[in-house]
Amino acid sequence: MIKENQKLLNLLQLVVDGIIIGFAFLLAYNLRFDDTWSPLIKHGIIKPPVGYVRPLKDYETMLILLIPSYLVMYRIFGLYDPKRTSGRRSELFGLIKANACGIIYCVAALYLIKEPDFARLFLAIFAATNLIIDYIFRLCVMRVLRKMRRSGVNLKHILLVGYSRTAEGYIDRLRTHPEWGYMVHGILDDRHEIGTSYRDIQIIGKIDKLEELLASNEYDEIAITLGIDEYAKLEKTVAICEKSGVHTKFIPDYNHIIPTKPYTEDLDGLPVIHVRHVPLSSSFNNTIKRLVDIFGAFVALILAAIPMLIVAIIIKVTSPGPLIFRQTRVGLHNREFDMYKFRSMRVQDASEEKKAWTTKDDPRVTPIGRFMRKTNIDELPQIFNVLKGDMSLVGPRPERPFFVDKFKEEIPRYMVKHQVRPGMTGWAQVNGYRGDTSITKRIQCDLYYVENWTLMLDFKILFLTFFGKKVNKNAY
Fold first, then answer.
1. Using an 8 Å Cβ cutoff, are 288 and 278 in contact?
2. What three-state secondary structure class fits 336?
3. Under 8 Å between Cβ of 430 and 471
4. Which of 122, 147, 226, 234 could serve as 230's disulfide partner, Cβ 3.0–4.6 Å?
């Protein structure tokens, strides 16, 4: 059984982790204090701090505390959980968090027992050494296990209950990733004939056969993939699985309605699923992003002051009309605001301007305007929109009311983008979806941003705005 294999693997991992911690500790001590090992000390770049160089035996108390505290942290942060479908990045983040908490706990314990005199550089070297060695070891284990699973060893045997689009999607992903090591033995379903198959996986019986199969077979998992119109069978199916003691997971058939990362709230013991999780609905996240916007806008204004002045003069000299073009756009919480841009087109009738896209070789665009649009210089006055709070540096691009009214009837979830501030640049723009491009693809990018916002994603988008290859691809 795969469960017994996992227990053995976890035990071996626990022993190896303890050995790695001890080895990293000794290596860090030698690197810090032994001049035959440490090139920094050998060449006089650093010197052991007076009063902190203690014999290795004096560090034994720390080692006794480190090993159990680290192993507990590894357990808390899920480093011994099955990781068939997780990647290298999640493993690295888990190790970083566990090492950080482990060293903090150890230092605090040493302080409480009045053993504070340990070299800080030694602790830093140990933490880095342990992290690197353990991560390399885990990558090797991960690679070996994935190779074994591709060859048919260490498989997890599962049975699906319900044939639906969710079942097909689940099977597709398992077939795409054989290194996960899942073996699907069949599907139980009431709506299709026995023998019907999808990608060589057959329907082997009706759902009422589940109890019989669980009594005579040793499945590692039951995956419930019922269609959304069959959820009346869910309670009974789960009860049968729980009675047999088999691990059961439910793969919902409403991902086209609820996103992949819904937010669940505990309402006095009653789980409440929020249809969409928006990280920026958090006051803390929203405040952090706003502070970054204000700081970034001031810096951008200082850097762009001279270029903006030059552009303003050129516009005035080459084309009659106002310098700044104001256009009504729809922003946060569906509120309208005036968005500022350098005027890049000839002056036109307001009613026509509201309903027209800018297209390639658009005759309305002035010569200097074409250059500005291609280089995004026409967007610089939006820095003032950011300072006012109408916009953010990064977010979904705001649209005109005419198109908002049009698209909200044609494109599902279009209005979700207005749950965050619109931006000067966004995930859709750095992926090439701007101007006269697929509005559906653009909204998909906007929804991804709304649901997966982080500061690092904002910084990535800003970087790609300046250095990406796609951002100016469809700028007319």
1. no
2. strand
3. yes
4. 226
Taking the C-alpha atoms of residue 135 and residue 363, their distance in angstroms, rounded to an integer, is 58
3-state secondary structure 291-322: HHHHHHHHHHHHHHHHHHHHHHHHHHHHCCCC
d(CA 154, CA 84): 11
Q: For residues 177 and 85, is the Cβ–Cβ distance under 8 A?
A: yes
One-character DSSP codes across 194-230:
TT-EETTEEEEE-GGGHHHHHHH---SEEEE---GGG
pLDDT tops 70 at residue 114? no
- CA neighbours within 13 Å on the CB side: how many for 15? 5
- DSSP character string of 139-204: HHHHHHHHHHHHTT-S-EEEEEE--SHHHHHHHHHHHH-GGG-EEEEEEE-SSS-TT-EETTEEEE
Cα separation of 162 and 196, whole Å? 12
Q: How sure is the predictor about 9, in pLDDT bands with cuts at 50, 70 and 90?
A: confident
Burial 288-319 (b: 16+ CB within 10 A, else e): ebeebbeebbeebeeeeeeebeebeeebeeeb
Give the torsion sign (CA, 414, 418, 424, 425).
negative
Residue keyed to tokens 């290194």: 179
Number of CB atoms found within 10 A of residue 383's CB: 22
Task: Give 297 or 245, the one with higher predicted confidence.
Answer: 297
The predicted pLDDT at position 44 comes to: 60
State the Cα–Cα distance between residues 112 and 202, nearest whole angstrom: 62
Q: Is 200 exposed, middle or buried (0-12, 13-18, 19+ CB in 10 A)?
A: exposed
Determine the length of the chain.
476
